[in-house]
Design goal:
single chain; alpha+beta; Cytochrome p450; two-stranded antiparallel ribbon; 52% helix; globular; iron; EC 1.14.14.16
Length: 492
């Protein structure tokens, strides 16, 4: 008890010290005085998006917050985000190291949260593998089309009854990642797939506790598991253990370069080449495990959530849904499924997908960056180690970039006067700079193949004419719609 009292007192003193010290430094303005111990975490306990919008109105495009005792600088608006992540990429491209990785021995592993030479090698190898699959053997498109065919057949089996498609869509996009990583898809009732989905789901549930654990370090030492520190570590170990099993299985059946059809085999072959050549390399099983985890987390929920949002928007805009269908009938017909080769011709569908990504803004606060050295930004002095949050909502929704109707669903904003697709530079749903999402090309391909096939085969209708689901989101790292039901009626 005495130790806990001393510890809490020390933390309160540290918070006050940091606050008083920041007042004498040239930091961006702070919208509210931080609370003892938690800083500004309390204000974002439920939904940070409206709070961040209010802070921007008070302070402008750049302001400071404290998450526990950690200085966090929030950047708003496309111009400021570009200035930091693109023009000053040398300083703003690093990631912080969070407890959720350190607790399971994954600090500086994989792609998303690694830095320096390790990040460069891991990203380079992973990207070259994905590009080889996509451009050489076209395996990514083939694997995705195979999965989409199974997915729409499942939807057809629902016979047009009101259904919430979120779970099955999430499973289907997860299956594509499985195909890429291990070279096979699973049936939807497969126990191994269901186990993996359950474990990944537990990590999503843990997200609401990660802010406290990552920023208030001493909470993890409190007896019991009130703040879920032990649960977070346990769930992540369970996922990494399952992923490691896939790696061990592949290592027992080594293939040559001509037979490579999945990321695990390709990564192991590349590692072996470097070792045999005597080249210093960071490629190892731990990094591979974390890369697999990164791809599952970044490539499953985000893609399925975008699909889920698009269908919801179509329930509100049936005239847009019909226009997409007519484009598909004209460009592809109804006797074959769309392929990735059809994508350049489908201007209106591509615009609908872009507008869904823009308006839904499913990862509104992106992934946190950290200053690798002291830097000046917009006249303020940001110290080395300051965390950086880029508010993508502002880049995707600002009226200065998108017009007075920026909160309306309007695919035409992505079509120029000649009827061609146009992508404004402010359109950055995958972020921008050196840390732009590794799976951007994969996500674009998946979204096109899933949605073009769904539009071709089904009409999307609300449960009843009087019960169109509301356009509301659930707060979280990924902003998903509130659960809703839809009737998918097969077209004649």
């Amino acid at each position: 008890m005495e130790f806990a009292t001393v510890l809490v007192g020390a933390v309160i003193f540290l918070i006050l010290f940091l606050w008083l010290r920041s007042a004498s430094r040239n930091l961006p303005p702070c919208p509210l005085r931080p609370l003892p111990v938690v800083g500004h975490l309390f204000y974002m306990a439920k939904d940070a998006r409206p709070q961040f919008e209010e802070f921007r109105k008070r302070c402008g495009d750049i302001y400071s917050l404290y998450m526990g005792g950690t200085l966090v600088v929030v950047l708003n608006g496309y111009d400021l985000i570009k200035e930091a992540l693109v023009k000053k990429a040398d300083v703003f491209s690093d990631r912080p190291h969070f407890y959720s990785d350190m607790a399971v021995g994954m600090k500086n592993k994989g792609i998303i949260f690694s830095n320096g030479a390790i990040w460069k090698e891991q990203r380079s190898v992973s990207l070259s593998i994905l590009r080889a699959f996509g451009m050489g053997k076209n395996l990514l498109a083939e694997k995705t089309q195979e999965e989409v065919a199974c997915y729409v057949d499942y939807l057809a089996s629902l016979k047009g009854n009101p259904t919430d498609i979120q779970v099955i869509t999430n499973i289907s996009t997860c299956n594509i990642i499985c195909s890429i990583l291990i070279g096979r898809r699973f049936e939807y009732d497969d126990k191994a797939l269901q186990k993996l989905m359950h474990q990944l789901g537990a990590l999503v549930t843990d997200q609401k506790n990660m802010g406290l654990i990552n920023f208030i370090f001493w909470l993890r030492y409190i007896p019991g598991d009130l703040f879920k520190a032990k649960s977070i570590a346990r769930n992540r170990r369970a996922v990494f253990s399952e992923l490691m099993k896939f790696i061990e299985e592949k290592k027992r059946h080594v293939v040559d370069s001509d037979d490579v059809c999945n990321l695990i085999d390709a990564y192991i072959l590349e590692r072996n080449k470097k070792i045999q050549a005597g080249t210093c390399t960071s490629l190892d099983d731990q990094h591979l495990t974390k890369i697999m985890y990164d791809l599952f987390v970044a490539g499953t929920e985000t893609t399925s959530t975008t699909i889920y949002w698009c269908i919801l928007y179509m329930l509100h805009y049936p005239e847009i849904q019909e226009k997409v269908y007519q484009e598909i009938k004209q460009k592809v017909g109804t006797n074959r499924a769309p392929t990735i080769q059809d994508k350049p011709q489908m201007t209106y569908l591509n615009a609908v997908i872009c507008e869904t990504q823009r308006l839904a803004s499913i990862v509104p606060l992106s992934v946190t960056h950290v200053c690798s050295e002291d830097v000046s930004l917009r006249g303020y002095d940001l110290p080395k180690g300051a965390y950086i949050i880029t508010n993508l909502d502002t880049a995707l929704h600002d009226q200065a970039s998108w017009g007075d109707d920026s909160t309306s669903f309007k695919p035409e904003r992505f079509i120029d006067n000649n009827g061609d697709l146009q992508i404004p530079e402010q359109f950055i749903p995958f972020s921008t700079g050196r840390r732009v999402c590794l799976g951007e090309a994969l996500a674009k391909m998946e979204l096109f193949l899933f949605l073009s096939t769904m539009f071709q085969r089904f009409q999307f209708l609300p449960p009843t004419a009087q019960s169109v689901p509301e356009l509301k989101y659930k707060p979280g790292i990924v902003a998903s719609p509130q659960a809703y039901e839809v009737r998918l009626v097969e077209r004649k």
